[in-house]
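Comment thread on ticket #2218

A.B. wrote:
> Attaching the input chain for the structure job we discussed in standup.
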Amino acid sequence: MTGAVAASAPASAAVSSYEVTIGMLESDGTSSFTVSGTFSFDPAMCGASPCPEAYSGISISVPERPSAFLPAITYTEADICPTAGPSICNGAAVSDGSALSLGNVDGVYQALVIGFSPGLAASAPNLDLGTTSAYSEIGGDATAVSGTLTNTTPQPDPEPQPQAQVPNAGSVKVPAKLARRGAKKIASASPVTNAGQPVRIRVTCKATRGDLRVCSKIKKNQGTFVRTYGTAARVRIVWSAPAVEGFTAYRQVKTYRT
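C.D. wrote:
> Ran it. Output below, let me know if you need it in another format.
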């Protein structure tokens, strides 16, 4: 059985690390063994398909296989399946695929073909058990019956999201309404937010007649107040604090008619 190593992601993608585990069944139909190991995949190294050079840091081990009279082996190189000669992939030419790791041990050629779908290219590999096999020149073929391929590339920590900046309890007073004449507290003496920023307060007033005194902002020891003087008016109060590291900007607006 032959295998293909595949891919299709942009060449600018980062190098990824993988762990692979494959359950293999010997040709006798009763003996089994497990292939396991790691490798890295760099799509930037894949100029043209097939591209075994995109696979590096390979360490994939096959245990001793007594029923096939084969010793244990650890593969460390990736190459394409030869299309002719004694190292041909299990006797069948594979012109568009690749074998991940080929090797010789004690003069006996044996190979592990790990199939990937759709083929060797620049995209992240996906394990294809149907084209995965192990074999040697003295026989002892084995086929894949189970397997997993896990991307173990460390992921960067997500950027911390700023939290909402809000006034500390008791810092800001938002009256439900304002009387046409009188004073109403709109903040404590030193209002601050949960980011430690002072709360800025802006009061604007509009009346039908521009020559009338409509309202004013008054600061006292007890806090900040807005005073109205008996004239029908539109009063707008803005409480705010700028954004700082770890916190969004704070802004609260309330409009009143007296």
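A.B. wrote:
> Thanks. Noting for the ticket: The chain has two domains: 16-151, 181-257.
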